[in-house]
Every structure is written in C-alpha cells, then in structure tokens.
Amino acid sequence: MGRFRTVGRSASVGFLLLTAGVTRSASPSDAACDAVHAAYNKMFRTSPKMITRNSGAVNVTKAIAEITGSGSYRETCTFLRDETLDGRPASVYGEDFRSRVGNADGKVWISKTTGATLRQEVDVDLGSKGKGHQSIRFEYVTK
After folding, report:
1. Interatomic CA distance for residues 75 and 29, integer angstroms
2. Which of 42, 46, 69, 89 is deepest in the core (most CB within 10 A)?
3. Residue-range definition of the domain harbouring residue 31
4. Cβ atoms 26, 72 nearer than 8 A
C-alpha cells in the first residue's frame, strides 16, 4: 500500500488540502493522482493569484477539511482528456474524495506547458448539511 504525501495547506483552497498518512492500493489512479499532486505542489511554490467563486449551502473549503480531516478518506484520480483552456494546452483530471462525512468531486486543469494548476472545479456533498460548489482560476505572473 502506498501513502499520500502532504502537498500543501491553504484556508482558501479547500480541494487542495491533502492529509498525509492515508493509505491507498496501487492502481491506475495512482499515476493520475501523482500528476495532480505535482501540479498542486508547483502551484503552492509559485503562489499565483487565485480567483475563487463559491456557491451552495456549505462552505467548500470547510467541507473539504471535514471530508479529509479524519484521515480515513479515499482519493481517486482519473485522466479525463486534453483540451485548450484560455488558449493554453491543458490536461484535465478528475479528483474525487470519499469519506463517511461526505464526498467531493472535482476537475483539475493542468498546463501541459508548465505543469501548473490552471483551474479547479469542485462539488461537495455533506448529506443533510448540504452541498456546495467552488470554482478557482489560477493566474501566474510571467517574467
């Protein structure tokens, strides 16, 4: 069994929260999760401007913390497709978290040129507590 590594923490970027110590079995999802985690790491190192929109009954950032907080959740990642985002070639991945507290289903756009996260869309469902949606666009300063 492999272990997740911590890729970073941010109060404003709920879906980017990953907790160390969660086990998973080796699967095709591992390579996709590695690509997503690498993009998150790159994003955290470069500190881009984040344009965030939230909607729904629950705060998505707090919901993700609840879903992943106990450490007993399952993350699954899937390569979905290649496309162009704002004129930039990108790979799109699905990233899903499941726990007894709730679920988070997201998509992450990763630049094929830089490997950095370009966009993230997340839907969370905490059952009777409600649902929420978060959309984040990442703007990087080019030198």
Report:
1. 9
2. 42
3. 2-139
4. no
